[in-house]
Amino acid sequence: MSKSLAYTLSLLLLLMITITIAKFLEIHSAPIPEKKIVDEVATSYPKTIAPLIVEDTIHIAGYFNYIDSLVSQYDPLTNYRLTEHLLVNANPWIIDTLAHTDYYHMIQRDSFVFDQRKMIVFYPKNTLKIPDSLEAVTINTLFSKTNIDVNLPEYKLRIYRDSIPLYTMPIRIGQNKSKYLKMGDRITNLRTLTGEGHISGFQRDPDFYDPVTGKPFHYTTRDDGQLTLMPQIPWILTEINGAMNGQLIHPTTNPKTLGKAYSNGCIGVKESDAWVIYYQCPIGTPLRIRYDLQITTANDSIIILPDVYHRNP
User: Fold this and answer.
1) Domain that includes residue 253, residue range
2) Global pTM?
């Protein structure tokens, strides 16, 4: 073999080795989409998971544990972060089912419910859809556009998506006085505070204490005089003006008090509405509580509301 031919073959061999190494580095250094980081990855790699078939009867008492188990089971299979709120909003009939456990809704159907925790949410063979990545991004985008507005003298809570009202709910607000509360061991201003903040957390299975006496309780007397166990419905924690002062949004078992200054400072809503707020307004949802006496109606007329806290003598 001539020296020139040997030299040429050596160059070709070196070139082939260089190309092979380059390809190897390209394959092993290419960025791999991380599982639950950005929406671009989720939408670029949509992943469909077969619907889930419920196997057991699930009551209110076991509902949250069951939902949590589904999130834990299916989250590793998705290319986004699966949450309870995503899963339920992909199956909105769940919210309707929970809202219809409202004691007064059941009374209208001639059904007395002593223990709401025994009511059934899921039956065997019910089907639950696991949202794909595209739907998850859509739901999260809607969440990011959601906010809550409360006008105290109007006794109204509204949920908005951008500037479009989705829900308008009657509320009760704090009483126009100060009173000694055992739970705080001090004289407490019972008026609901105004300001801006956000939803800071949830109590999905709250314990019940009388703020005046500090004693726990488990039963409630309904507007129709019937005694029932307290229902298991999430209470919504708020942070207003940078402070978590115990001013909650929670269901009342006595809707006849809605439209009144009746509570010890919290914002009370119907049982059914509490479920809607919980699932439409995840942690971080902006919240504004205001005291506007002048409002404009749908036909552009002006209404002056009663000054329940006597702020404008």
Assistant:
1) 148-294
2) 0.85
What tens digit of pLDDT does each residue of 7-19 get?
555 555 555 555 5
Q: What residues in the chain have per-residue pLDDT under 70?
A: 1-46, 313
C-alpha span between 108 and 223 (Å, rounded): 13
Decide if 236 contacts 274 (C-beta within 8 A).
yes
Asked whether residue 82 is assigned to any structural domain, the reply reads yes
Helices of type H across the chain: 3-29, 39-44, 60-74, 84-89, 93-99, 103-108, 133-144, 271-280
Q: What span, in angstroms and rounded, lies between the C-alpha atoms of 294 and 279?
A: 31
Contacts of 53 (CB under 8 A, 6+ apart): 125, 126, 127
Does residue 289 share a domain with residue 152? yes
Residues 117 and 179 in one domain: no
Alpha-carbon distance 52 to 74, whole Å? Answer: 10
**Count of the separate structural domains present in the chain:** 2
| DSSP one-letter string for 203-215 | ESS---B-TTT--
Domain presence at residue 8: no
Q: Determine the Cα–Cα distance for residues 291 and 308; give it in Å rounded to an integer.
A: 10
Q: What is the pLDDT of residues 24-81, one digit of tens each?
A: 444 344 443 444 444 555 555 667 899 999 999 999 999 999 999 999 999 999 999 9
- DSSP secondary structure string, 266-300? SEEE-HHHHHHHHHHS-TT-EEEEE--SEEE-TTS
Q: Which two tokens stand for residue 142?
A: 């809607």
Gap between the Cα atoms of 108 and 119, Å rounded? 16
Q: How far is CA 97 from CA 37, 61, 92, 105, 273, in A?
A: 32, 14, 9, 11, 12
From the list 130, 117, 127, 119, the residue with the least C-alpha distance to 70 is: 130
